[in-house]
């Protein structure tokens, strides 16, 4: 009998539980034993493993987070050799890694020690080069859209500029798609150089017309030119979104009386019940990964192209960033 170990590597994302559930159900259907490894590779090293059966994954489809826990730890050197020892000790035939770029790095390390594995992409950033979509992205975008819908009314009531900070650096996917869906008036990401003077012009034009408010989406950690920081009197303690807000206020408050407010969505983008799409792609990819193990295929990353499942052999390219699609980024400019 084949025995698979399943674990999470890196940050959590909504839909991981749906993938775990699918992997367990498919494994049992194919007469494969599946072992849940708690808290990433730490759980394997600390002997925190349990056989997973249907009762263990009942009623978790809708739950955010991960029932297995996760860790940012990636084994290297002596720790990697210890992982191999544990892999052999427990009679595992393959590992399934749920995660983003950290999981991809871990998979490449495992391959060097001839430890078979398969990656299922799970990251809200949606920045993996080998798949169109990753588990958790759709839920994160939905949270950004909901936040913009809510902030729209208070921004309009007080005639304010709302700065909304998202995760996703440096790929730009969450800010771009969430901003488009939520009707943002301007979207700033790390994908391209942005012009704050243009932002000022757009806001000013809106205030001089009937739209006396603006919603600006800013990807966390976008680089700000030094001259802008100096002009606003900002230091390293100020994050990018705050600097942009101060710049807007400095240039428009005296002329138009514009005030700004700042909202960092932070971990709200990671939490909550996964959307339908995240549940579907998680279920598809996890079931397919079990079929791959059954057929003896390892050292591959599972992905999706549209609704089709893909298999990508491991190479150094699986850790590459994938920036937001150029057309989607250009589409945002139609609404400026």
TrEMBL record:
A molecular-function term among this protein's GO annotations: identical protein binding
InterPro entries for the chain: ATP_PFK, ATP_PFK_prok-type, Phosphofructokinase_dom, PKF_sf
Highest taxon listed in the record's lineage: Bacteria
Keywords from the UniProt entry: Cytoplasm, Glycolysis, Kinase, Magnesium, Metal-binding, Transferase
Cofactor(s) listed: Mg(2+)
Pathway(s) where this gene product acts: Carbohydrate degradation; glycolysis; D-glyceraldehyde 3-phosphate and glycerone phosphate from D-glucose: step 3/4
GO cellular component terms, semicolon-separated: 6-phosphofructokinase complex
Short name of one Pfam family: PFK
Ranges for domain Phosphofructokinase: 3-292
Gene Ontology biological-process entries: canonical glycolysis; fructose 1,6-bisphosphate metabolic process; fructose 6-phosphate metabolic process
Family: Belongs to the phosphofructokinase type A (PFKA) family.
Protein name: 6-phosphofructokinase
